[in-house]
What does this fold into?
Amino acid sequence: MTPPQDSPPQPRAALRGRGSAENPPNRFERLHYEEEDPELDPETEPGSVPTQYLGDPSRSVIAWNQSPDLGFAASLNPYRGCEHGCSYCLSPDTPVLHADMLWRPIGDLRGGETLASFDEHPQPGRTRKLRPATVEAVWWSRRPTLRLLTRHAEVVTTREHRWLQARDFRWSRTEQLTPGRLLRRLPLVPAEPWDGDYRAGYLAGLTLGDGTFRYQPGWRSDKLGFPAAYWRVALVDLEPLERSREFLSSFGVNAQIRPFKGGPSSRQPLSKLEIRSLGRLETVHKLVEVERSSRSYRRGFLAGFFDAEGHSSHVLRISQVDLGVLERVRGYASSLGFEFRLERRDPRASTL
It folds into this structure.
């Protein structure tokens, strides 16, 4: 029995099994047709979509496939491979700066390691900042190289590797450089060991910068009428506290990091490293009160003081109310090649 002509069409039964209710165009056909949306008005059609750049992780000009629809297993794409992603090659012995401020050969890099990087293209009016960057991939290539000779070092690199010029901050390829060009660089400083003088200087600088030390030789228990004796450093950053605990342990002084309530003015949670044992305080007193004349002690003192009172933005700043302490810091820094200028803000904390 046929339905009347004016009745609505019956819905199509759902296909069973592996059937599909859609019939998309075959991608191997030369032509296919798509119906236009009748509600789309050409005059009200939105503007062109901005171009999107998508990262291509391929590192080879040969693309392999396992499709049963294709009669070949590999294809050649000249727009991929090293022309796309391998334009910044260096020789394996080139040192690169890691996030722990140690230089290691680039050939020893592994995925997941953290390097010291900086903004390639900073915002207008902003300076480049050093930032940690994680190594996502490492690949090797065999290519023609050039030997770039500078006043400070020499580098074996490819023609396409880019270098940041010091005058106009433009990126230029190796093959574009000529004698007399000035390049930006990070100085390669040989790593110096952390010896006993460095550790003692670090603890002294950290204590003088942001620590509290109440102890005099000969003090006994506060139960006998002596003042309560303790050494304490409270900070938001855990790294200086962990380093201080390690340094104290090397001198036979054990201490624990615990939460610290800094009062209602504290905006962030603090942690403290504290010592109350009179025997350990006597050892700490010898470490932080006795100034040593070695270069290693001055390095450690500056590092500890900066961890306590330092700030890094477009310049390095160290603040303290006591001008005598700042002059001591500036003297140590001058002996190590730093140039600090004193900005007085009496009666508030002045700044180097």
